[in-house]
Amino acid sequence: MSVIGQIRKKPWVLMGVVVIALLAFLINPDSLNKIFGKDPNILGKVNGEEITREEYSDALLMLQSQAEQQGRPTTGLEEQAWQNLVQSKLIKQEFEKLGLKITEDYFWSQLPYDPLFGQNPEFNVQEFKKEIEKARTDGNMIEQYNAWLRARKEIEYRMMARQVFGNITAGITSNKKEAETIMKQRDEVADI
User: Fold this and answer.
1) Residue 40 per-residue DSSP state
2) Rounded Cα gap, residues 59 and 157, in angstroms
């Protein structure tokens, strides 16, 4: 009964609660995120590295085009695209932590071993480079060039994964920091 008595004494409190509840119901949470600084183009983070909406769209588009080429349904690939992105970010972070880098020479020398190209015995890297350069400079082939850039990113992730997993399974992973530490320890032992 005392609650009803308080409401009768202070009707503005009840009106305030009702107005706040209505505003909370009507206001879109996305607009609040924009106002308070959360970037709507960042979908998530992996160890502090952001996953953007563009990266996710590229990964999903790549999976859909692969499924289309293989005659599989193109629906339901969203979760797989997300998992691939997270896995790629983790592999890239491990790759960089090991002190490894993918140079242009390394990329082109390893390209024939990628599953996308390795199945074609007549694949010629030099001719492929010329085709890519042609697509880059020809205004009519800009869509093909953009598709190549998306595919290249995926190929680089596969190369990183092969290198990281190969080093881990072989047990020979050593980077520049480890080499410096080993050299320092060797020099300290030899210093009499």
Assistant:
1) T
2) 12
Residues of 11-34 as b/e, b for ≥16 C-beta within 10 angstroms?
Answer: eeeeeeeeeeeeeeeeeeeeeeee
Mean pLDDT calculated for residue range 124-135: 88
Structural contact between residues 93 and 47, judged by C-beta atoms closer than 8 angstroms: yes
Distance CA 171, CA 158 (A): 20
For 175-187, the pLDDT digits (tens) are 677 778 888 887 7
Is the pLDDT at 105 greater than 70? The verdict is yes
Q: Domain extents for the chain? A: 1-38, 41-97, 100-192
Long-range contacts, stretch 158-167, CB < 8 angstroms, 24+ apart: 158/114, 158/115, 159/102, 159/106, 159/107, 159/110, 159/114, 160/91, 160/92, 160/95, 160/100, 160/102, 161/91, 163/95, 163/100, 164/91, 164/94, 164/95, 164/98, 164/100, 167/98
Please write the tens of the pLDDT for every residue from 81-96: 999 999 999 999 988 8
